[in-house]
Amino acid sequence: MGRVLLNRLATTIPSVVGVVIVTFLLTRALPGDPAIYFAGPEASPQSIAEVRQQLGLDRSWPEQFVRYVASLMRGDLGISLTTGQPVLSEILLRLPASAELTFLGLFIAAAIALPLGVIAAVRPNSWIDHLCRVVSTAGVSLPTFFTGLLLIYVFYYVLGWSPAPLGRLDILYSPPPMRTGFYIIDSLLVGQISVFFATLSQLLLPALSLAVFSLAPLARITRASMLTALSSEFVRTARASGLSRWQIVAVYAFRNAILPVVTILGMVFSFLLGANVLVEKVFAWPGIGSYAIDALVASDYAPVQGFVLTMALLYITLNFLIDVLYSLLDPRVGISA
Amino acid sequence: MTELFSHARYVLTQNPLSGFAFVLFVLLLVLAVFGPALAPHDPFAGNTGQALQPPSALHWLGTDQLGRDILSRIIIAARLDLAIAAASVALAFVVGTAMGLAAGYLGGWTDRVVGRITDTIMAFPLFVLAMGIVAALGNTIINIVYATAIIGLPLYARLARAETIVRCGAGYVEAARLCGNSELRILLGHILPNIMPLMVVQTSLTFGYTILNVAGLSFIGLGVRPPTAEWGIMVADGASFIISGEWWVALFPGLALMVAVFCFNLLGDGLRDIIDPRSRT
Amino acid sequence: MKPDEVVPLLTVEDLSVEFRTRSGTVHAVDRIGFDIYPGETLAVVGESGSGKSVTSYAIMGILDNAARVTSGRVLFRGTDLLKEDEVRMREIRGREFAMIFQNPRTALNPIRPVGKQIADVLSRHAGLSASEAYRRAIEVLAQVKIPDPERRARAYPFELSGGMCQRVMIAMALSCRPALLIADEPTTGLDATIQAVIMDLIGEIAQAQGMATLLITHDLALASEQADRIAVMHAGHIVEIAPTKDLLTAPRHPYTRSLIAATPAPAASLSELAAIPGALPDLRRDDLPPCRYSERCPRHEADCDGPLPLERLSARHTVACWHPL
Question: Whose CA is closest to A319, among A98, A11, A96?
Fold first, then answer.
């Protein structure tokens, strides 16, 4: 298994290379003189020339690429014009906020979709089955930003159950001491229960917005693969052996059915990381998505480039971890490689 | 052909949803084509005295913050949104299919290069890549088309490649070759027509997704500028009014988006049931 | 074994099963009946589609949702299995009677070690703890003559050969010492040499445990080697039941005779094989004749269209034919 993982790790290298090349091309593809974009709209010809020299834009393309890679290795993603801070440090500061949101969204989606799909498969043509099918079809039609706004309107404005969508934590509370950057975990680690609940209530609506869309493919695939597993020959053998209902559904069918679901997690994450940006705008969430949007509006390009690169590297890592998870679940992986 | 029609009729009547989706599709098409003629008010004529009015007899869906009639704006936005999505899907379809055909048929270096390109695109979360492309190329509508087409490419390329490889092993390709047909002729005359139905099904299934991407990009301020009427940007305008209770400004454009995407998803499902029922989940 | 004196272990009486499909109702099995006595091996032989497997699934109670039992009883030790509720059935399935299937590798859970799969059955029925059950599973693997059972117990089905997988299935089925084993095409798909080994293994265990065997197969030669009695099935009907020797030397049903003629004997050449004319009737028809072989039968006469008789030719030989040979 170790060898399989090493192989898989090796295949991420071309992806990383490709990503770096693409982000490089994107900045150099800016219409006109890239130096102007990086120097900012207020810059004097003097500072533009400085920036041009700094970024090596006056050199040949291969040389520019080498300098680009070198600066990446140093962790230099440029400086944000609007804040004057290094892009990398700002991204690292804001990353936990986005990550917390994304993972909670996935967690909620899975917590709903998996049981829904399993029960729909175990009880075909019941109301749960119909609900599952409706969710699978309708869920993918809802624009995430629209869902977010709808949820705000219903739960904040009309019902008053949710707090104002103004970020991670109501101003009444101060954030817990920084350990992981995930407020949920950090607040529990020091036992600040009120902060924990406050965080959760702020997180709920944005995470739900993310969950609604990703629910659909998860529920659909879970239901389909459970149906396949339940009608398979080995489940027939299990039934013939008189195994209990729980054993058959949970141990025999479900563990086999979960494999295709893990496979589509990659696609689900692709969506989640993108939709994260939209949700952060709707809920004024201080993550890297809103960082990029603010930079875009201000024509501040270094943060945008840093954002795209970071998201891509994050996504490559997540895909690798999904592969690891899959090979842990399926002992057959690696035999025909 | 008649067999196809009778099968199509069977599917449409068996599944009333597909029939409903088809009707909706025609409606959207009508809106797109005849939009400006159907709008009750001038979509660009603002009247600040009438700003933020809830739905009424005069303005069926209310007015926005500049007093413009929301219904009229939604109607003419249909044309823009559908046109952008159509252009994007068409571009992705043509380029992606060509790439996939070439990769599957020629193999070797072509296959590897095409594979690298699609893998690299897929290494990004797709919406993020689209953001990056638009940010780099410039904030215009045509760049939205390019960006969403690029992220839509890999799907078509991979499907075309897989289907081409399957058909390359089929007997009729060998027979055509033996008859002296040139490679290009075989590719275009035999393989392409055979993979076309599956590719078309794929198009309708991804059309809805493309509309969502286009709207999403507009929502964060990319591509479309005011005062252009486009569903995504209308929702963005309405977003700030949600917390003060003027729900109609964001809701109706959002519903329009939902209905359009839902319609294309159902249509895609129906088409797939007609053409290739075995691949349904 | 004198069947007249001993009470049957399993009695199938007047059993009918139909399937609802999109293209109509398939009358898969129509009013069949047979007995199995303790310790004996009864083979049910027939072409594909004759209803043999459906019968075994009906006995086990594992028919799928599209199937309906429309008549009959399945008496196992006096209890009608068809009337038992699912909870009770789950208790006796695997313990009092068990089943092994065709394609052993796909009939086992692909992502669970085989030792654990056997242990699952043992924990369920023998009330053993997980570790006890696992230890016992290794013992059972040794019983079915799998070499190095401790190592093999940790293996997954894809790591084992077809023959070994079938041994694992046998181990699973026999771990709780059931009184009846139903074997549905257990050797189809295995190498010829392995086939003999597997059948011998089953026979050995059956004898040691006093277990009855219901062998389902399309291979008359295999049945003739292994079974005490043979029941011949055609299109959902049982057309003849007789002790093996009697059936082979003096078949009384035209279909049985054709089947024998179509079965290759070791010394026969291919040109001597006689094909059975016609094909199985479409079981979705509503107008099926009472004798479903009549349309293919060379001895068909006008009065064959009456309701099918079951003639008891002797104490142990029954045939369903108006004009037996």
Answer: A11
